[in-house]
Specification:
single chain, 46 helices, 56% helix
Length: 841
């Protein structure tokens, strides 16, 4: 690698980042709270290719303007006044009192009409007769583009062919206003009806002194654009050149509008129209103009954006547009060939590349996020991303602003320079004292990749031999512990990436040191939960993780054996709901295995689960074949042999108005939440492997069940050091895999009740067993033979009982929720589905 790229240049670059002296720090910047600073850091970090990030890094100033796609969705966020005006000028609208009010303008663009309506109200008053007249007339205009999907319960207003009669106006000013308004409304009606004469009508208005003159000129562009868009991406044969000529003529008019300062009020709309033409034609000249208009708006001086509403509007629209335009840039960044700006790729990429020859912002937009930013570090590969950066360097270009490009360079760095900490420490300290946007946009990225390099690449001597392997981790940990904004999402992301890299790499001692010195339990990092549970080296450490995240890592805790679950259930330092679940699971496994339940566990389970056991009639210590205990189990669908993440009470967003209790039937998760199915070793093993794969290895949308199945072997050092993983009892899991499903076991026991004693309680046991065949395990085939036998016995032996009267059917469904036809393909194990991240989360 050429010496000019040596990583020691980081220090010089970062020293240059230090802006003005701290005494010159603006008071507003100095007054930023820790929470404000963390929010800004997170925004820049999460939007690495947003225009405000570039502007901040380049020292151009973040204008603080949110992207506005101008795709208007009129809903409850509008003021009541605006909503009322919309209802009055749009036909067939719902009442504004409706909680879910959502104005439906069909194919009409109502933003200009709404602004005119508000202006008329402001000038004349809401109750002025002309305001009502204007709204009534506008309703006729908008009737021409109704939404065909409107509710059939409404009586649709017929589309108007002409405007309603004008209002008699004695006031000359109102009469003149009505004349100008009606002229524009009449032209708009022609436009929406695609009727002849619209273009001529708009030209007349544009040449007049009408208050609508400027927007009428814009509508001339809109007419051309609509005709171009109507032909779609594949215009009729022979018409392509004609369409291109029309688009370029429209482009010339758009440029003339943008060059005329008297037409500033329609500059934002015109900027968007150039984008529309570029979208529908892909023409190189139009695309280049689109990129120019968009980037010109994004690179406007901060003072102008702050003082000029038009510049601010253009910036907001351009910020939204550039996010869509950059979708054509490959994820790894643009690869243009030997020359830095060789025109390759889509029309958007070619236009950006053309501008990149003179504009570093355009070149920066052609860079992508490197694999280090997109994927777990363990998946790193040698070689450089961001080809545009290296092409520009090979072209001997001086890359300015230098600090912007240093961030780009850092993201693909594969060397570690311990000396770079000196300048980076200064940068972070200065950012704390004067948290200006440039420092907050640069410091996190440089810090992240310096920490990454320190962990991934040991320092080397002149002969490229590794020096102190531990030194990089120690230096990084020291800085991470001192990071000032530990409540930021950036910090949680960084520490999570560190943890999963070290754990996956088998550097267990370092991973545990990181765990012990950094709070890794905050936030919603699923990878952290998995790594922390698996990193636990003792029962006490595991208990600490469970206490911190009672609902975390359940798919792994599910692998613990009956003795371990029993012991954990007895620990007073665990939350009561967790202890109750552990005791319940251990108890259910013993019952399903038809093994005696020790009195201490039985007593503990009953005490911790009063919701289930309050009405039980069996005595503690009863054996599994005890008839009162059978009735108790049949009355308690929440008994299960797995610790499942399909927790009752967590499904209210999936159809439950009242989530089921532990004593009621769960109609959503039949197999996992109503008693038990046999343990499926492959299913549970693959589930754990899928979670490990997703936590440690999974790149975006690039994984499958086979890769997930290999996660456990790839994580060998971690799993060998994991107390939880080693605490599994494979023999117990094998025994659980051989038991009958709960519907079969419970129904057969209810049937076997016959001939024992006087049969008191058997009617209820049979009825409840039949209910179990309806709502219990769907994973082990249909339950017809024993369900039918139980039904026959119930109705022959207890025909007049309440149990018989309320049990009208027996059940024989492989998948009741999917119908009772013959066995379906999805009765078979579907590892792809079970491995699916979305299936569990």
């Amino acid at each position: 690698m050429p010496r000019r790229f040596h990583v020691s240049l980081i220090a010089a670059s970062m020293l240059a980042i230090q802006g003005p002296a701290l005494a010159d720090c603006p008071p507003a910047v100095q007054a930023r709270t820790t929470a404000d600073v963390a929010t800004r850091i997170d925004h820049y970090w999460s939007q690495p290719r947003a225009p405000e990030t570039y502007r901040a890094q380049a020292g151009m100033g973040d204008p603080g303007v949110e992207a506005d796609s101008h795709h208007l969705y009129y809903g409850t966020d509008l003021s009541q006044e605006q909503r009322a005006l919309l209802v009055r000028m749009l036909p067939d609208q719902a009442s504004t009192d409706d909680q879910y009010f959502y104005a439906q303008p069909g194919n009409c663009r109502v933003d200009y009409a709404l602004s005119v309506a508000q202006a008329r109200v402001a000038a004349l008053g809401a109750n002025h007769p002309y305001v009502a007249q204007w709204l009534r007339t506008q309703r006729s205009v908008f009737s021409a583009c109704r939404n065909e999907g409107w509710s059939a319960s409404r009586s649709p207003t017929p589309a108007a062919t002409s405007l309603p009669p004008a209002m008699a106006a004695a006031d000359p000013a109102v009469a003149r206003l009505q004349r100008d308004d009606r002229a524009y409304q009449a032209a708009s009606l022609l436009f929406y009806r695609s009727a002849p004469g619209a273009a001529a009508a708009f030209r007349v208005i544009a040449a007049s002194a009408s208050p609508h003159a400027h927007i009428a000129r814009y509508m001339g562009l809109a007419l051309v654009a609509r005709d171009i868009g109507a032909s779609g991406f594949d215009p009729p044969e022979g018409s392509e050149s004609q369409r291109t000529a029309r688009a370029r003529a429209a482009l010339a008019e758009a440029r003339a509008i943008l060059a005329d300062t008297r037409l500033r009020d329609i500059h934002p709309l015109t900027q968007g129209m150039i984008g529309y033409l570029g979208y529908w034609t892909g023409d190189a000249a139009v695309r280049a103009a689109q990129i120019d208009a968009t980037l010109d708006a994004l690179e406007a001086p901060s003072a102008r954006i702050a003082a000029d509403p038009v510049a601010r509007d253009r910036y907001a629209r351009a910020a939204a547009d550039i996010a869509w335009l950059r979708r054509d840039v490959p994820r790894d960044g643009w690869v243009g060939g030997d020359e830095a700006v060789r025109p390759t790729g889509s029309s958007v990429v070619r236009a950006l590349a053309g501008r990149a020859a003179r504009d570093p912002f355009a070149a920066w937009l052609l860079t992508g996020q490197t694999h280090f930013e997109r994927e777990p570090w363990i998946l790193h590969r040698y070689g450089s991303d961001n080809s545009i950066y290296w092409q520009l360097q090979r072209d001997d270009r001086i890359l300015e602003p230098a600090r912007v490009w240093e961030v780009v360079r850092a993201a693909s760095r594969s060397e570690y320079d311990p000396a770079a900490w000196i300048a980076l420490d200064t940068l972070v300290r200065d950012a704390g004292a004067c948290p200006s946007d440039d420092k907050l946009a640069i410091a996190p990225s440089l810090f992240y990749h310096q920490v990454r390099a320190a962990l991934m690449y040991p320092a080397r001597d002149e002969n490229m031999e590794p020096l102190d392997r531990q030194g990089g981790f120690t230096a990084a940990l020291e800085r991470v512990r001192a990071w000032p904004w530990r409540d930021s999402a950036f910090y949680r992301t960084l520490t999570a990436d560190m943890l999963r890299y070290l754990a996956a790499k088998g550097r267990i001692a370092e991973a545990r040191t990181l765990r012990d010195q950094i709070d890794l339990r905050s936030g919603e990092q699923q990878g952290n939960v998995t790594a922390l549970v698996l990193l636990a080296e003792s029962e006490d450490q595991l208990v600490g993780e469970i206490v911190a995240r009672p609902e975390g890592g359940q798919r792994f805790i599910n692998l613990l054996s009956i003795p371990v679950l029993t012991r954990l259930a007895g620990r007073e330092d665990l939350p009561a709901p967790v202890r109750a679940r552990f005791a319940r699971t251990a108890w259910s496994r013993l019952y399903a295995l038809q093994r005696p339940i020790p009195r201490p566990l039985d007593t503990l389970m009953r005490r911790l689960n009063p919701e289930i056991t309050a009405g039980w009639t069996s005595r503690p210590g009863a054996r599994p074949d005890d008839r009162p205990l059978l009735l108790d189990v049949l009355r308690s669908p929440g008994l299960n042999i797995v610790i499942t993440e399909h927790q009752r009470g967590g499904n209210d967003g999936m159809g439950y108005s009242d989530p089921p209790s532990l004593t009621s039937i769960d109609t959503f998760e039949h197999s996992d939440n109503n008693w038990w199915c046999a343990w499926q070793p492959d299913r549970h093993r693959l589930t754990a492997s899928a979670i490990m794969y997703g936590s440690f290895f999974r790149p975006d949308d690039d994984w499958n069940a086979m890769a997930a199945a290999g996660a456990s072997s790839a994580l060998g050092p971690l799993l060998r050091a994991s107390w939880l993983w080693q605490a599994q009892d494979i023999g117990e899991q094998t025994a659980l895999s051989e038991i009958s499903s709960a519907p079969k076991m419970l129904a057969e026991r209810a049937i076997a009740w016959r001939g024992r004693g006087n049969g008191a309680g058997q009617d209820e046991a049979l009825a409840l067993a039949i209910r179990a065949t309806r709502y219990g395990c769907q994973r082990q085939g249909g339950h017809g033979p024993y369900s039918h036998t139980a039904w026959d016995l119930l109705h022959s032996r207890f025909p007049e009982s309440d149990a018989a009267r309320r049990t009208r059917w027996w059940f024989d469904c492989d998948h009741f929720s999917g119908g009772c036809s013959t066995r379906r393909p999805d009765d078979e194990p579907d590892w792809e589905r079970w491995a699916s991240w979305s299936y569990y989360y």
